[in-house]
Structures are given as structure tokens and as C-alpha cells.
Amino acid sequence: MVEPPRDPDMDFRYRIYNADGSEVENCGNGARCFARFVLDQRLTHKREIHVETAGGPLTLVVGDDGRVSVDMGKPRFAPQDLPFEADGDRPLHDLEVDGQQLSIGVASLGNPHAVLRVDDVTTAPVATLGPAIEGHPRFPRRVNAGFMQVVSAHEIRLRVYERGTGETLACGTGACAAVACGIRQGLLESPVTVHLPGGELRIDWPDIEANLIMTGPAERVFEGRVAIN
Question: Would you name the residues annotated as active-site residues?
């Protein structure tokens, strides 16, 4: 949803709702589509757009090629920032799920993510492990579950089971969280290309003190009207 900003230094307020009606803090892919929408609707002519979200401010930059870069801010790894019940901040946490012992990374990009490394995302048990991780009691507000296959230091494949939605074709904040966790664990180096079922994203995080930048396409697919009673 596009709303007027509360902060006079912002251009818009951006609100996100899942398919189940729950409002969430942030959505990276949605942010790119938001930038495309406000330009197409001539709500702004700016190529650098500052927006408020429930998870904090975002800066969106629309390139000449139509690709949109989103300054996602700094990823946060402290368990209390997700929140996640754990006894300390570390690159990997043990998590028991349905009798299995998993090692997961956790990160917040304004919304919570758990990232599990797998050998092959094609055969990863996303349909069963995804909801089990999403609703695990150690995540009091639930969590987005990412399944990451490392192809090389600069390339991963990813599937994401999103909180309140299920598996989706792409998840921008999930891609950012996976790359941040992978870099933190020494598996990846910036920049990283993320292959998702719905397309590719480029994630830049050159330094742990730097903001994380997500870049990808945003294309208009259709227009419609919805009657709201």
C-alpha cells in the first residue's frame, strides 16, 4: 500500500500485507515493485525514492536500465532482533526440528529470517521443513525460512518459505539474509548472485559495517481494480 509519509524527509510510506492478511515489516521484492509503481503512476519523478516501512526507512534507486537498487540497511544478527530464543550471538545456531538437529544462521532485515544450508535446493524438503521452522517455538513471532545452496563464493541458489505465505517464487529480504549469513560464515564473498525460482538478484555487502544493497528487475505484469467493501 502507498500512503503519505509521517516523516517529512520521506517521500512515501510503504505497507506490506501477506496473503493471510498479516502485516509485515519489510519486503525487498515489494520495495522494487513499489518504486516501479509510483513512477508508472507519476506519483513521483525522482529516481532516488525514500520510503518509510514498519521495519525502518528504505532508499530505492531506479537505474536507466529499469533495475531497482534497494538500500536494505545493515543486517542484524542478535537473537533479540528477530526475536529468536538463543543463548548468544553466533554465525550458526543449533535447532531441533521434528527430531532433526539443524544448524541455521539467523538475520533480521527488518523482518526475521532463518537460513539453512542444503546440498541441492531442488530436492530440499521446503514443503515440510519450511512450515516447521516458520512456526518453531524458539521464534515467538514466526520466521521466514531460507534454504541455501552454495554454488561458489559469488553465487547461490535459494528457496524461501515465507512467514504467513508459504513458498514464494522470490524473496528479496530472504536473499539478503542468505547472503549476509553466508558471508558471516565464511562461505561467500560480495557481490553475490542469488538464483531464485522467479529470477536473479544481485546482493552487495562489501563490508560488515556497510549497508547491504539489493539490485533486481521490476516489471509491470498487469493492471487491475479491486472492489473493497
Answer: 27, 171
